[in-house]
Amino acid sequence: MEISKLPLSEEDFQEWLRQLALVDGWLYYHTHKSIFSPAGFPDTVLVKPPRVIFAELKADGNQPTEDQWMWLYALQHCPGVECYLWYPADRDFIESFLLESY
Predict the structure, then answer these.
(1) Care to name a GO molecular-function term for this sequence (predicted)?
(2) What average pLDDT score do residues 8-31 get?
């Protein structure tokens, strides 16, 4: 079975992404207590020069809030910034995408 077919909680999905990113040399940031962050700010920031990625991770069936959509939209319109909404079903793509060299 493909990795992307296995169900994951949002927490497990976040941990999967963290491990993948760190193994490939990405700097990884995740806000653990979002109550101290602006509403809707993306879950994860990944940096591996020259790339900067903001990613909002969602478990299957969950949708971004209005504030999350606002942040995603604003970040997508910043030159040089990559911004994504990812679900567990995207894992095969995410793995190849993060591991590709620039």
Answers:
(1) nucleic acid binding
(2) 94
